[in-house]
Specification:
The protein is globular and about 70 Å long. It is mainly alpha-helical and about 190 residues long. A hairpin with a 6-residue loop joins strand 1 and strand 2. It has a 3-stranded antiparallel β-sheet. It has 10 helices and 3 strands.
Length: about 190
């Protein structure tokens, strides 16, 4: 019998970098992305829930408007265990800017036909990585709440994952910039 001593693929470089390389949208990319989003209004519910609500794409396409509480005293998104990747109920807070993105679109489809093609159109001129909207959201949730355990509960991650991948600080002025991006402010910046 002939056995090889090592995996011949071990020395082949990967294209994607390591799993710990998390890419988020910087301020310029955020404005470009949101400006493109304004040109595809049917995508606004889906993208804003993923980007400003931190909802996973697979969870987002299963959400119903009854799960999104914009008017309540405690504004939140309810993600049931049947929708959640991690199979437990959670509540994610809704920011002021998310209310402004979602309010004009209440009742409109969250999951639209040809979602992927539509997303490809708004990703133009942006360095993109799988799950970049969620990575961006979690990074800025950490910048806002500054509590690993609170963010892990809100977004359905283990605290160790938050610590390993998202504890990398985002600057406070970048955090403030992110959470203040409304459709009106984006339109003003791109005009």
């Amino acid at each position: 019998k002939k056995f090889i001593r090592s995996n011949p693929c071990d020395n082949i470089p990967t294209i994607f970098g390591s799993k710990s390389d998390i890419l988020i949208l910087d301020n310029d990319s955020l404005i470009t992305f949101l400006g493109n989003l304004l040109e595809e209004p049917k995508l606004i519910p889906y993208v804003s829930l993923c980007l400003f609500g931190g909802v996973r794409p697979t969870e987002c396409i299963q959400l119903r408007w009854e799960d999104i509480h914009l008017e309540d005293e405690k504004r939140q998104i309810y993600i049931s265990q049947h929708v959640s990747k991690v199979r437990f109920d959670r509540y994610t807070p809704i920011s002021d800017n998310l209310v402004q993105w979602l309010s004009p679109h209440i009742g409109k489809p969250i999951k639209i036909p040809n979602l992927r093609k539509s997303l490809d159109r708004i990703k133009k001129n942006i360095v993109w990585q799988k799950d970049i909207m969620r990575h961006t959201a979690i990074s800025y949730f950490m910048g806002k709440f500054k509590n690993i355990y609170e963010v892990s509960e809100q977004l359905g991650n283990q605290p160790s994952i938050i610590k390993k991948h998202y504890q990398k600080a985002v600057l406070q002025n970048d955090t403030d910039f992110f959470w203040s991006r409304t459709p009106l402010k984006v339109q003003e910046l791109i005009d």
